[in-house]
Amino acid sequence: MTCSKAQSMITQFINNKLSLQETDEFINHVSSCAECKEELEVYYALLTAMKQLDEDKTLTSDFHQELNDKLEQAKERIVHARFTYYRKKIILILTILLLALFISMRYAVMSVEEHNVAQSEFRLRTSFNNRRPKEYERLLQEYYRRQNAGSAAPTLFP
Question: Can you give the residue ranges of every domain in the chain?
Answer without folding.
Answer: 3-83
